[in-house]
Amino acid sequence: MVPQSSSSPSSGESVGRFRGSVRATLWPTRSLAADQRWFDELYLWTEGGNVSTTERASIQLHALRNAFDWLAYDLIDRIGVTVSFGTVERSLDPLTELFEKNILVAHRMFVMMRGAPQRLRSRYRLRAFADMLRVWQFPVGYRISAPRVSMEFAGIDLVQPIFAKVLATTSPRADAWNDLALEVQALSLDTKSTIVGAVETAQQQQSASRVGFELGQGRAICMPYPPPTLPTRS
Prior knowledge:
There is one protein chain. An eight-stranded mixed beta barrel has the order 1-2-3-4-5-6-7-8, surrounded by four helices. It has helices spanning 53-72, 85-90, 92-101, 123-135, 153-159, 174-186, 202-210, and strands spanning 21-31, 37-47, 79-84, 109-114, 140-143, 163-167, 194-197, 215-216. The protein contains seven helices and eight strands; from the N terminus they run E-E-H-E-H-H-E-H-E-H-E-H-E-H-E. The chain starts with 20 loop residues before the first strand and ends in an 18-residue tail after the last strand.
């Protein structure tokens, strides 16, 4: 399966026993104040069915293989991927093997982890995986998905990321953006290395920059694009 999509859904492919479609797009991560690109994030979503944790692990693992292939063929310069806590628990051995085989492109692969620590059977396995990636020089980040940034303290403390991603607030109020920046800093994260996602308007971009964020994703910054097609092997 090579996920193929764009900002508008198109045909997808099934993975394993999942009967729905897997879609994908790439979101460029850029400086909010200058035309400087950091990495392009591979964003996945599903349609047409509920996904179990085991199926999600299979989808993420397959997408990771594709991402490493894109790097190997120089179809993408640098890429960011999300790895869920549940994927680490269910697919630790194949994940370890995959990253170990691709150590030479570690500086081009950015790993964002996400999940609920309270649901983990073993926090040790998750922390050991994150530490292993660091030893191999893969940049390890954290994707904040809770309604309030402060609710992610346990996950961030477990992963110890060097960068993070948070969604832009939709409120136009200046204090809402000030609060977002303060919450990020209260978790010992740096606004300079925290990506603000879903920046859809120029006002959001300006507000994010004003409170100290330097990186962003969204249509106000750069449009997403479909994943590349791998060359046909003869």
